[in-house]
Amino acid sequence: MNGWLILALLLIAIFGLLVMARVAKPLWGFVGATLMLGAAGYAWQGSPTLAGVPRAAERKFEAPDIAADDLRDAIWGRFTYDYAYAVAADGLARAGAAQAAVNAVLGGLQGAPNSGRLWTRLGTAILAHDGGQVLSPAARTAFARGIATAPDHPGPYFYYGMALIQTGDLPGAKRAWLAALARTPRNASYREDLAMRLVLLDRLMAMRPTAPAR
């Protein structure tokens, strides 16, 4: 169906709605002028002679990483004040709303300024907002605050290591993960997971080409 026919049908439909809604006659001139202006703009900028092709809207959803969620909850715990804000930020980040994720964490920090979890999550959120390639000073500061606020908790070190892997600093990530493992209780359900990740990180580092000696 070409554009002129679609436009004509649209005008007829609007005229019918005006009649059914019993819009006062004095307003018809205003509505008509608006429609004519829109039609003129379409004729000038659009392509009314092209045939219309029905298309289904495409929406892409990122499948949730259940394993990552389970590990997060095992490390940090659940159903706490900062848990709600961290989970909200995770959902926003998966939907592609990086700035909203940052804002969600900042909102949580207003009520819990000493939350190591939220400071660490802020570092992750800022990294994602900045494109995920480089740790900006703001992201590094957030991770540092997370570590300073919870120095004996494995969480800040683990997620800082994740950020370092994402930005290509594998040796730095290994140091962070070793620090996380050292702070993990021996009976923790996630200790084996952290240890396995360190093994995989070692293998990844071994696969990296070394710089030639000078």
Topology summary:
Elements: H1 3-20, H2 25-45, H3 66-76, H4 81-94, H5 98-111, H6 116-129, H7 137-149, H8 154-166, H9 170-182, H10 191-207
Structural descriptors:
214 residues; mainly alpha; Serine Threonine Protein Phosphatase 5, Tetratricopeptide repeat; 2 domains; 0% strand
Textual characterization of the structure:
This is Cytochrome c biogenesis factor. This protein has 214 residues and is mainly alpha-helical. It folds into 2 domains: 43 residues; 136 residues, Serine Threonine Protein Phosphatase 5, Tetratricopeptide repeat. The protein contains 10 helices and no strands. α6 runs antiparallel to α7. The longest helix is centred in the first third of the chain and has 21 residues. It starts with a helix and ends in a 7-residue tail after the last helix. About 4% of the residues have low confidence.
Query: Number of folding domains?
Result: 2
Report strand %: under 5%
Report Rg: 28 Å
What is the CA-CA span between the terminal residues? 69 Å
Question: Average pLDDT value?
Answer: 80
Q: In percent, how helical is the residue content?
A: 55-70%
- Series of secondary-structure elements, N-terminal to C-terminal: HHHHHHHHHH
- The number of helical runs is 10
> What is the third-level CATH name, the topology of the largest domain?
Serine Threonine Protein Phosphatase 5, Tetratricopeptide repeat
Low-confidence stretches: 57-65
Determine the CATH superfamily of the largest domain. Tetratricopeptide repeat domain
- Cα shape: elongated
CATH architecture of the largest domain: Alpha Horseshoe
CATH class of the largest domain: Mainly Alpha
Describe the main β-sheet briefly.
none
Question: How many β strands by DSSP?
Answer: 0
**Class from helix and strand fractions:** mainly alpha
